[in-house]
Amino acid sequence: MGRRVVVIGGDAAGGSAASQAKKRQPDLDVVMFERGRATSYSACGIPYWISGAVETESSLVARTPAQHRAAGIDVRMRTEVVGIDLDRRVVRWRGLEDGGEGTEPFDDLVYATGSVPMRPPVPGIDAAGVYGVQVLDDGAALRTELDDGSVRRVVVVGGGYIGLEIAEACRVRGLEVTVVDLSATPVGTFDPDVGATIADAVRAEGIELVLSDGVAAIEVGSDGRACAVVTASGRELPADLVVLGLGVRPNVQLAREAGIPIGTSGGVAVDARMRTGIDGVWAAGDCVESWHRLSGQRVVVALGTHANKQGRVAGINIGGGYATFPGVIGTAITKICDWEAARTGLSSTEAEAAGYSFVTAWVDSTTKAGYFPGASPIRVKMIAERRSGRLLGAQIVGREGAAKRIDALAICIWNEMGVDEILSLDLSYAPPFAPVWDPVLIAARKAFEAVEADVRKL
Amino acid sequence: MGRRVVVIGGDAAGGSAASQAKKRQPDLDVVMFERGRATSYSACGIPYWISGAVETESSLVARTPAQHRAAGIDVRMRTEVVGIDLDRRVVRWRGLEDGGEGTEPFDDLVYATGSVPMRPPVPGIDAAGVYGVQVLDDGAALRTELDDGSVRRVVVVGGGYIGLEIAEACRVRGLEVTVVDLSATPVGTFDPDVGATIADAVRAEGIELVLSDGVAAIEVGSDGRACAVVTASGRELPADLVVLGLGVRPNVQLAREAGIPIGTSGGVAVDARMRTGIDGVWAAGDCVESWHRLSGQRVVVALGTHANKQGRVAGINIGGGYATFPGVIGTAITKICDWEAARTGLSSTEAEAAGYSFVTAWVDSTTKAGYFPGASPIRVKMIAERRSGRLLGAQIVGREGAAKRIDALAICIWNEMGVDEILSLDLSYAPPFAPVWDPVLIAARKAFEAVEADVRKL
C-alpha cells in the first residue's frame, strides 16, 4: 500500500490540497471526506445564487466529486469524519445517508473542516425559519424557501459582509429586509466614516438598518416557525424568515478532541508550510489561523482565496514540494447594491490595538477622468504611520470601478512602502481609466502632507 | 523685486510647477508663457472630445488661465518664448496675436515645452487636410473639420495608442477609417501576441488595419488638399482627411540652442529633482528624459501623469521644499473600442534589449468569478527573469474591468518582487470582483512554474 493521505473536508482548502498532492505525487493514495453534497464550491457565491444573479447551483461548483475522482482522488461524499486517532493514525467516519461507520488509516492528514456560523445563544435560535448561510446546502434550503413565495419579510442578523450580501439578495427578490447589527455602522471592519457611506447606500436601496442594537430573542409562532426578532432595545421586528449573518468561527472541535494544537485566535495553529503541531498533520482554510503581517498577531480570516492558497501550499508540501503561505494583511472587498467597498491592512481601530501611532487622510475623486462618460465617485482613505509615513491601511468606497484599486494599495502595504514613495508610483493613466492623478495617488499625497504636518508639530 | 520664476509652457508640467512653487513660496514672482489658447488641459482627452464622448473643450481644461492668475501666476497666453539667454538670464518672447516682442528676466527657469508630433518626411505631408493631434488647438481644428460633414474617409498614420484612439473616435462618428502602421501588430509597445488580440478587436469594430506597411507619400488633389495616402508597398488609400498618430518627440529645440544639456534619449537631461545641467534651470514633462527603473536607461515617455508629477516635483523644489521623481517603469493603458489593454515594466523586446534572460507565461481568465453576471475575458501575460523569478514586465488585454489590474503588477515590479511571492499576495476577492484566484495571481503561478521548469533544464 502506498502512502495514504486523508483529507477532512472537500471544499476549497481540502480540494486544493488533495489535487495538488495527487498531481505532484501520483502514487499517493488520497482519500477526501466531505459531509455535504458538493465539493470545491464557492460559498462566497451563495448570496448571488439566492438573488438569482447566478442561475444554477452547479455554476458555483469549481470541481465536482466526479472531476476529483477522475483525477484519482477517492472522494467519500456525505461522509462525516467523527474522530481522529493520532496514536493509531486513523480517522473514524460515519455515512450520513446510510449510517455506516468505519475507519480510514492515514500517513498524512489534512484538516480542512472550514468554519461554523456564529449562532447567538438566544431563545428561538433553533426554530424553523432561522437560517445560516454557510455551506451550499444552506443556500439550497434558503432558496427553496424563498422560491415558495410565502416569505415577505426577512430579518438579517448581522451587518457584516455576508449579512449585507444576503440582505441585498433578498431585496433584489422584492422582499422587505431589515438588518440588525450591534455596531453603529455596518461592516465593522471598516472605519465608521466609511461605514456611514455604506449605510447610506444600503438604506438608499430600501433596506432598513437597525444599528447599535442586538438580538435578544427570536419569537416563535404557534406553527413552530420564527415570526419576529426582538432586539436588545425591545424592538420587535416581524419576520417570515430570519437569516444569520454574524460571521463564522473556525470549526476546530475534532482537532481539539484529537489533541491537535489550537492557536490563540481559536483557529488550528499552523506554520508557514501549513503544518500543525503534530507530525504529518496539516491544516488549511477557514479552520486555521494566519499570521497578520502588520499586527504580528495570529488571526482567523475566513476567505475562499486564502483557503485555496493554503490548500495548495499544504498539497505541494505533502506531494514532496516546497511552498509557504506568507500570511495575510486583511484585504477584503464587497459589493453592496450599486456600491463597492474594500479595505486592506489595518483599520484605525486595528492600528490602535496593534500599538501603531498614525495619521489619516482621505480624498473624494472619480474612477475615470472627471470629464469622461461613466466617471463614478470614489473615496480613498489612508492610514499612515507617524514619522515613517509607512502605509498601514487603506479603505475605498465608491461606485463601479472603485474598489478593486485596493489591490494596488495591498501590494504597497505588503512591501512596507511609505506614502511619499506611493505618490510617485508609475500607475496606469488614460482618461477612460483614471484622472491624471489616480485617486490612489492623490490619497497618498494627502497622507504624506498629513505626515509632514504631524512632524512639524513635534 | 522678488525672486522671479519663468515657466515656458502652461500645460500639465509647467502649470503644476508654477502652482506648486507659488503655493510653497507666495512671494515668488511666477511668469508662465503659453503659446496656445489653453492651460493645464488633458491632451489625452482629445480623442474623446473628437468622438463626442466628451462634449465640450472646456471639460478638458483642469485649470484655466484665469484660475492660474487667481493663484497669483502671471500667465502670458498666446505668447511664445523664442530664445533663452542663460548668460543674461532672460527669455525672449513674441506675442502670437499682436507680434509684440520682449524679454523677461528669471532667477529660476522651468523648461516645460512638451513634445512635437512626429511627421514623416514624405511628399504631401504639409498639405491641407493633414492633421497632427498634439495640442488642444489641433483637436479643435480637427473637430471643426469633422463637424463640417464633408469628410467620409479618414486614414490614420500610425497604430500606436494615439493613432488607435483617434481611429476609434472617427469610427464612432460613422466614418470609414484605415490605420497604417509599420509593425506587424498595432501598438508596438505590446508583445506581438497581445498586439494580435488588439488587432482583432480593432478590426471587429470595422476599422481597416494596413500593417507592416509605411507611408510613402500623401497625394494632394487639385484643391491643394490631401486626397490619398500611398503606402510603401504601393497601396493607395483614398482619404478625405489624414491624421498623424505616429507619436511625439521631445520639444528640445530652444533648450539645445540655449546650451541646456540634452540626454542620450533626446530629451532634456534632468536629475531626480528635475534640475537640468544648468544652475537654476529646471525641466519637466514630455520634453525631458526619465530614468527607467528596470532597463537602467534614460527614456522619453510622453504621458500626462508623469508631466504632472514632474512639474509638481520641480515646483516643490523651486519653492524651497524637497521632492524627487523616482523614475518610470513603462506603465501604459488604453481603451480601444470595447477592449482594454495595459502594460508595465519591459516587453519581451525591451527585456531582451536590456540584457535580461527571461521566461514568459500567460493565462486566460475572467474579470469576475466565472459564474458572475458581467464576467469579462481577461488575458494576463508575465515576463519573469530566469532563475530569480523577478517580474520584469506584464501585459493585460481584455474587456471591461481587465486593464486597470496592471497597477497591481506595476507595484510588484516597482518593488522588485518575484513571481513566487506575487502568487501569494493578499489581493481582494469576492465574486463580483474576481475569481477566487485573481487572474493576476494565476499568471504569477504560471510564471513561477515556467521559472521552475527552466531551472530544471539547467
From TrEMBL, chains A, B:
<keyword id="KW-0274">FAD</keyword>
<dbReference type="InterPro" id="IPR016156">
    <property type="entry name" value="FAD/NAD-linked_Rdtase_dimer_sf"/>
</dbReference>
<comment type="similarity">
    <text>Belongs to the class-III pyridine nucleotide-disulfide oxidoreductase family.</text>
</comment>
<dbReference type="InterPro" id="IPR023753">
    <property type="entry name" value="FAD/NAD-binding_dom"/>
</dbReference>
<dbReference type="InterPro" id="IPR004099">
    <property type="entry name" value="Pyr_nucl-diS_OxRdtase_dimer"/>
</dbReference>
<dbReference type="InterPro" id="IPR036188">
    <property type="entry name" value="FAD/NAD-bd_sf"/>
</dbReference>
<keyword id="KW-0285">Flavoprotein</keyword>
<protein>
    <submittedName>
        <fullName>FAD-dependent oxidoreductase</fullName>
    </submittedName>
</protein>
<keyword id="KW-0676">Redox-active center</keyword>
<dbReference type="InterPro" id="IPR050260">
    <property type="entry name" value="FAD-bd_OxRdtase"/>
</dbReference>
<dbReference type="Pfam" id="PF02852">
    <property type="entry name" value="Pyr_redox_dim"/>
</dbReference>
<feature type="domain" description="Pyridine nucleotide-disulphide oxidoreductase dimerisation">
    <location>
        <begin position="333"/>
        <end position="435"/>
    </location>
</feature>
<dbReference type="Pfam" id="PF07992">
    <property type="entry name" value="Pyr_redox_2"/>
</dbReference>
<keyword id="KW-0560">Oxidoreductase</keyword>
<feature type="domain" description="FAD/NAD(P)-binding">
    <location>
        <begin position="4"/>
        <end position="304"/>
    </location>
</feature>
